[in-house]
Each structure stands twice: as C-alpha cells, then as structure tokens.
Give the backbone structure.
Amino acid sequence: MNYGLYIVIFLSKVIENALATLRLIIVANGKKWLGAILQFCIGLVWVIVTGVVVVNIQKDPLKIVFFALGSFVGSYVGSMIEEKIALGNNMVLVVINRELEELVTSAIRLENFAVTAIDGKGLKEEKSILIIMVPRKQRRYLVSIIKEIDANALIISEVARTINGGYQVAH
C-alpha cells in the first residue's frame, strides 16, 4: 500500500474541490478574471491527480476511494472558506410594526447602515418595510441589532448587486 500516494490524491482533490466551490461564488459576485484564474488552477490539479489515479487503477482501486473522499471533503472545505470570506452584498427586507420604525431605523443608522423605510399594511395593523443593503460580512450583526429591538420582526435576506446609485457605506 502506498499511503503517501493516497494522501497526495486526497489532498489534491480537497484543494481542487475547495477552489471549484470558491470559483462558483466568485464568478457569481462578478469577479470573472479571478474566476478564470481559479479555473486554470483547478484544471491543472484535476489533470495531474486524475492521471495519477487512472494509472494501474485495477491493481490499486483504493486510489478511487481517496479521490472520492477528497472531492467530498474539498466541497465542504470550500463552502466553509466561502462563508468566512463572505463576498458580496445582501439586501435585507425587514417588516416591523409601524411604531417601532423610528427606533429601529435610528439604531441601524447609528451603526452606519443605510436604510429606507416604506409604509406597509399588515393583516391587522400598519407596518413599516425597511430596505437595507449590507455587506454579507455584516448581515448577522445587522440582524442582531434589529432583533434586539423587535424579536418578532420578519427579516428576509437575499443576495444583491447594486446596479446604480444609492447610499453605500464601506464596512
């Protein structure tokens, strides 16, 4: 048994799949050149590791297992890295009772987030709809500010890209 070879196959696939996961997110955030560079690296790793695996595959089928395990772990590692990097922006929509609007918007603006408030109508009472554009890295913090004031607020978050204008603060 060639344990060194199995470790190299496993680690190569972890790297390849982690990069592939990151590449998808990077391209989705509009960074096409960085995505292309990552794809070049992914292609190199794939060709090399696949070539190593297919040589004498009938005599050493464990290479297939380490190849697949590396793919599995690499995908998970890539997702964890992407979560830490947290590229892009989120548009956060918040529905609160109208009487809490001033308190919530003041707290949000105090933390230097831009917020727009719109009047809304709920089933039984007047509501305020808050629209907030926030860097993904700051989303959890923003949500904690809102929930501290209104634990029952309806909070919806979506991936967003600014097309034009608006007040944006770099965090």
